[in-house]
Design a protein that fits this description.
The complex is a heterodimer. Chain A is mostly helical. Chain A has 14 helices and no strands. Chain A has 2 domains: 102 residues, no CATH class; 272 residues, no CATH class. Chain B is 27% helix and 22% strand. In chain B, the strands form 5 sheets. In chain B, strands 1, 2, 6, 7, 8, 9, 20 and 21 form an 8-stranded mixed beta sheet that branches. Classes of the chains: A mainly alpha, B alpha+beta.
Chain lengths: 389, 474
C-alpha cells in the first residue's frame, strides 16, 4: 500500500460531494437539501434546546419525505439555529436550516393543495392573490353599480339594515357562505393529505397531543429560539415578529368572533347590521381590526429587518401577499366603520366585501395554510414526545 | 467594529490588549472593561469564524452545590478535583486547579450575567447533565452572547487582526505589531499598559506538529479553527515566558477521514469502535477495541491511528449494530461481503478476510451491554478484544475510515493564581496575563474531561481581565 495519504478527499473512500449527503434522491431539491441538513444536524445536536424540530430529528436516523415535510412545517423560522450554527455559510457545510425549511414549507403548501390543479396558485402566489383580489373588488363595485341605481349607491344609509339596502342579506350570505364552505373543504382536504403524508405508523396512536399543540401555537412557544427571541440574529431577546404575529392572529380571531356574533344576532335575534359602536360585534371587530392592522404592518416591517440569509426570495410574494390581504381586510373594515354614515359607505362596502371575499376564496391557496399545517405538525410533535418519554 | 471595517486609531495607549477571540479572550475583555479599563481585542479570524475552538464547544464543567434548572444535581468542588486528578493522572498544578475549581462555582452566575444561556439537560447531553452546563445552541451561541455584551459595554474588537510581534522587555509588555484587515502589508503598532494572551494553542500549525510527529502530521485533521497557529504562544516563549505542559502532546481522537482539514468540529466524531474491529491499511488489527468505555477509549484512538501506516484506519462492523450508535455525518462505506469492502477501502482483500475470520473464530459469546464492561470477549488472538466482542457476520458490512483528529495542544505558558505569566527566570511578569488553551497545560497536563477547557478559559479569562485592569489602575 503506498501513498494512502492521498486518500484524503479522494475517491475510494467515496467522499460525498457535500457533508451530510447520503446519495438519497427525494422528489425535490428542497427535500434533498433538508435531508442533507438533518443528517448533519443529527450528528451534532447542539440545537436540541432551541425548538421542536431538532428533538423530532433526533427520533429518526433516516428521513422520509413525509418526515422532512413534517419537520419543515414544525419549523417556526425563528432563525436561532442559524445564528448559533458553527457550520452555517461561509463554512463549507453550508448549513442553513431556517431557509431550507422555509423553501420546503412553501413546496408542501403546493403539494397538499386541493384540488390539485389549483396548486399552481402557489407559484407566483403574490401575483395570483393580487389578481383575484382586484377582480373580486371590481366585481363588487360593478355589481353594486349594476344592481343599484346611482342615487342609492351614493346616498347616506343609517340604522339597522343599512348595508342590505345595497346588497340583500341573503345574497351576501349565500355568496360568502359558498366561498367560505369551499375554502373550509379545500383546507380540510389539504390537512388530511398532510396528516397522511407525515404519519409515522408507529407513533400515530400515542397520546393525543391536541391540547399541547393548542397551547404551543397560541403562545407561539417555538417562535422563541429557546429563549433567545425570534429575530434570528442576536442574543438580545427581540420579540418583534412574535408580538406582531400575536396581534395578527388574535386580531384575526376577534374579527372572526365579531362575524360569528353578528351572524347569531341576525339569525337568532333578528337584529340586523350595522350595529351601534358599543355592541359586541363592533367592539370585537374594532379591537380585532386594530390588531389586524398593526400586526400585519409589523410583520411586514420585520420582514425587512430580518437577515437576508434566512429568507427564501421565492416566498416573498406569498408571505407579503397574505400579510397584505389581512391588512386590507381590517383596514377597509375600519374605514367602513368610520365613514359608514357618509355617502362613501356604498363604495367602501363594495371594496371591503371584495377584499373579504377574495380572502375567503384564496385561504386554501395562500400562506393561511401555514397555521393549519403547523398546528398539525405540533400535534404530531407532542404525540412523539409523549411516546418517547 | 462590527459593521464597518475601519481600523481604529491606535495612536493612544490602551489599558488592556487582549489577543485572541474565544471564550477566554472575551471573558477577559468583558471583565477588564467592567472594571473600567479601555480594552482592545485582536481576533485573527474573520467575524464568522471568530471564537477559535470555542465555536465548536458545547458545555462547561463548573462545580456547584445544588441542582439547578439546568443541572440535575450537585457537583462539589472535591468531586471535580478528583475527576481532574483522574483524567490528568496527577499532571496538574494542584493549588491552581483547586483555585480554578473554587472560582468555577461563581462562573455559572457570572457567565449568565454576560448574556450566555444554558439549556436544561436533554437526551443528547451525553449523560453529563449533572456535572456540565450546556450552552443553549452550543458554543457559537455562547460566543455571540459574549461578543454582543462586549460590544455593548464598549470593548473595541478588530477582526482579521494577526499579531506578528510582541515587544517585551524584562517580562514587561510594551506593544504589539499587528496586521489588520484587508491590507495585510500594513503593520500597526499597538501600545497597551497590560496584555492578556488568550490566543489558543498550536494544533493548526502542521509544521510545528511535525517537529514532534514527523511527516505523519501531514495526515492529521484539525477539528477546530485553522487560526490556532500558536504564534502568540511562540512569541511569549521566545521572549522568556516559562513553559508548561508536554510540548509533544496533543489531544487526538479518531474522526472520519473524510472530514475537512480544519473546522469539522464535533460532528466528524465516530464513537462506534466498540461495535466492531479496527484495522489499518494492511488489514491488520492493532489494538484492543474493547479496552475501556467512553470517554477513555474516545481519547486514545487518535493517537493509535496516528501510529499506523499513513495514519489511517478503518472501523469495520456489520449490519446488526448499524443503528446502535449516533448517526454519522458521512455514511459508512457499505459492501455485501468482506472482500468487496476491502476492495472499496483499497486495503488487502485476502488479509482482511483472514483478519475477520480469525476474529470471529475467537469470539466467546456473552451478554452484550455497551454501557458496561461486559463479558463478550475474544480468546486466542492478539490483540484481544476484551469486551463487547461479537462476530462480524451479518451482511451488509460497513466501514468508517478514520484519521487522527487533533483537538488541542498541551504546551503553554506558566501562570499563577492571578493568571499572571511567569517568566523562565522565576519572576512574575509585570503586566502579562494568560487565559485559555495557551495556559491550559497548567491545570490540564494530560487527558481531558468534557467541558474542562471552557472552565479553564472562562475562569482564567475573568481573572486575567480583572488582574490586568488592576495593574492599569495601580
Amino acid at each position: 500500500m503506498s501513498a494512502t495519504s492521498d486518500l484524503i478527499g479522494q475517491s475510494p473512500l467515496t467522499k460525498p460531494t457535500k457533508a451530510g449527503g447520503r446519495g438519497i434522491e427525494h422528489s425535490s431539491e428542497n427535500l434533498n437539501e433538508a435531508d442533507r441538513l438533518m443528517t448533519i444536524c443529527n450528528s451534532c445536536r447542539y440545537c436540541q434546546g432551541l425548538c421542536a424540530v431538532f428533538p423530532a430529528m433526533e427520533l429518526r436516523r433516516d428521513f422520509t419525505e413525509g418526515d422532512l415535510n413534517y419537520m419543515a412545517n414544525l419549523c417556526h423560522a425563528c432563525g436561532a439555529c442559524f445564528a448559533d450554527c458553527q457550520f452555517s455559510p461561509p463554512h463549507d457545510f453550508e448549513v442553513n436550516v431556517p431557509k431550507t425549511m422555509a423553501s420546503l414549507r412553501a413546496e408542501t403548501y403546493s403539494r397538499y393543495a386541493w384540488p390539485s390543479f389549483l396548486s399552481g396558485l402557489f407559484y407566483r402566489n403574490g401575483l395570483a392573490i393580487s389578481i383575484i383580489t382586484a377582480l373580486s373588488v371590481a366585481g363588487f363595485i360593478l355589481g353594486f353599480i349594476y344592481f343599484n341605481n346611482p342615487d342609492l349607491l351614493w346616498a347616506v344609509h343609517t340604522g339597522p339594515g343599512a348595508f342590505y339596502k345595497l346588497m340583500p342579506h341573503n345574497t351576501m350570505a349565500l355568496l360568502f357562505g359558498v366561498a367560505f364552505v369551499a375554502a373550509i373543504i379545500a383546507i380540510i382536504m389539504g390537512a388530511i393529505t398532510f396528516w397522511k403524508d407525515t404519519t409515522n405508523a408507529s407513533i400515530a396512536g400515542a397520546g393525543s397531543g391536541f391540547w399541547q399543540a393548542f397551547s404551543d401555537s397560541f403562545k407561539l412557544r417555538y417562535l422563541d429560539g429557546g429563549g433567545a427571541g425570534c429575530s434570528g440574529e442576536t442574543i438580545q431577546k427581540k420579540d418583534g415578529r412574535k408580538h406582531a404575529h400575536h396581534l395578527t392572529f388574535y386580531g384575526f380571531l376577534l374579527c372572526f368572533a365579531s362575524t360569528s356574533v353578528a351572524t347569531l344576532y341576525h339569525y337568532g335575534l333578528g337584529r340586523e347590521a350595522p350595529y351601534p359602536w358599543w355592541d359586541l360585534p363592533v367592539i370585537l371587530g374594532t379591537l380585532g381590526g386594530i390588531g389586524l392592522v398593526i400586526g400585519p404592518a409589523g410583520l411586514f416591517l420585520e420582514k425587512f429587518k430580518r437577515p437576508k440569509e434566512l429568507q427564501d426570495p421565492d416566498r416573498f410574494g406569498m408571505d407579503t401577499g397574505f400579510i397584505a390581504m389581512l391588512f386590507l381586510t381590517s383596514f377597509t373594515g375600519l374605514v367602513l366603520l368610520f365613514l359608514r354614515e357618509t355617502p362613501l359607505m356604498g363604495i367602501l362596502l363594495a371594496i371591503h366585501l371584495g377584499v373579504v371575499f377574495s380572502l375567503f376564496l384564496t385561504l386554501p391557496y395562500s400562506k393561511f395554510v401555514h397555521g393549519i399545517y403547523r398546528f398539525l405538525a405540533l400535534i404530531r410533535s407532542a404525540k412523539e414526545s409523549n411516546a418517547n418519554h | 467594529m462590527k459593521n464597518d471595517n475601519s481600523i481604529p486609531d491606535f495612536s493612544s495607549k490602551y489599558d488592556v490588549l487582549v489577543i485572541g477571540g474565544g471564550n477566554a479572550a472575551l471573558c477577559a475583555a468583558i471583565s477588564a472593561r467592567r472594571d473600567g479599563s479601555n480594552v482592545l481585542v485582536l481576533e485573527r479570524a474573520k467575524e464568522f469564524y471568530r471564537g477559535g475552538n470555542t465555536r465548536h464547544t458545547r458545555n462547561m464543567r463548573c462545580a456547584h452545590d445544588e441542582a439547578t434548572d439546568t443541572l440535575t444535581g450537585p457537583y462539589p468542588e472535591d468531586e471535580l478535583f478528583d475527576d481532574l486528578m483522574r483524567v490528568t493522572e496527577g499532571e496538574t498544578d494542584q493549588e491552581l486547579a483547586k483555585h480554578m475549581i473554587h472560582e468555577s462555582k461563581d462562573m455559572l452566575n457570572w457567565i449568565v450575567e454576560q448574556g450566555v444561556k444554558f439549556q436544561p439537560p436533554l437526551g443528547g447531553t451525553l449523560g453529563l447533565g449533572r456535572t456540565n452546563s450546556f450552552f443553549l445552541g452550543g458554543g457559537r451561541a455562547m460566543l455571540n452572547a459574549l461578543y454582543e455584551t462586549a460590544e455593548k459595554i464598549g470593548v473595541q474588537i478588530c477582526y482579521e487582526a494577526e499579531v506578528t510581534s510582541l515587544e517585551i522587555e524584562n517580562g514587561m509588555f510594551l506593544s504589539a505589531e499587528a496586521k489588520i484587515g484587508a491590507d495585510p502589508a500594513k503593520n500597526y503598532n499597538i501600545q497597551a499598559k497590560s496584555l492578556v494572551a488568550a490566543a489558543g494553542g498550536f494544533e493548526s500549525n502542521i509544521d510545528w506538529l511535525k517537529k514532534y510527529w514527523g511527516e505523519a502530521a501531514e495526515n492529521f485533521l484539525i477539528r477546530g479553527t485553522a487560526n490556532n497557529q500558536g504564534s502568540v504562544l511562540r512569541m511569549l516563549l521566545d521572549k522568556g515566558a516559562q513553559e508548561v505542559g508536554d510540548p509533544t502532546q496533543c489531544h487526538a481522537v479518531a474522526i472520519d477521514a473524510r472530514a475537512p482539514k480544519y473546522d469539522g468540529g464535533i460532528i466528524t466524531r465516530l464513537d462506534c469502535v466498540v461495535f466492531g474491529v479496527v484495522v489499518n491499511n494492511r488489514s491488520e488489527r492493532f489494538y484492543d477495541e474493547g479496552e475501556d468505555i467512553w470517554p477513555k477509549r474516545y481519547a486514545i484512538w487518535g493517537r493509535l491511528v496516528a501510529q499506523q501506516p499513513d495514519q489511517i484506519a478503518f472501523i469495520i462492523f456489520d449490519h446488526s449494530v448499524l443503528k446502535k450508535f449516533m448517526p454519522s455525518l458521512y455514511p459508512p462505506i457499505k459492501a455485501d461481503s468482506i472482500n468487496e469492502l476491502a476492495k472499496k477501502l483499497e486495503i488487502p482483500e485476502e488479509k482482511l478476510v483472514a483478519t475477520i475470520n480469525q476474529f470471529n473464530g475467537s469470539v466467546i459469546e456473552g451478554n452484550f451491554d455497551h454501557t458496561i464492561l461486559d463479558d463478550c470477549h475474544t480468546e486466542g488472538i492478539n490483540p484481544p478484544k476484551t469486551h463487547w466482542a461479537r462476530r462480524i457476520e451479518t451482511p451488509p458490512f460497513y466501514a468508517y475510515p478514520v484519521r487522527p483528529g487533533i483537538t488541542f495542544t498541551y504546551l503553554g505558558v506558566r501562570i499563577d493564581k492571578d493568571a499572571r505569566i511567569q517568566m523562565s527566570d522565576g519572576k512574575p511578569s509585570a503586566n502579562m496575563f494568560a487565559a485559555g488553551e495557551i495556559m491550559s497545560g497548567n491545570v490540564l497536563g494530560r487527558g481531558y474531561a468534557a467541558g474542562i477547557g471552557m472552565t479553564i478559559g472562562s475562569v482564567f479569562g475573568r481573572i486575567a481581565g480583572k488582574e490586568a485592569s488592576k495593574h492599569v489602575r495601580n
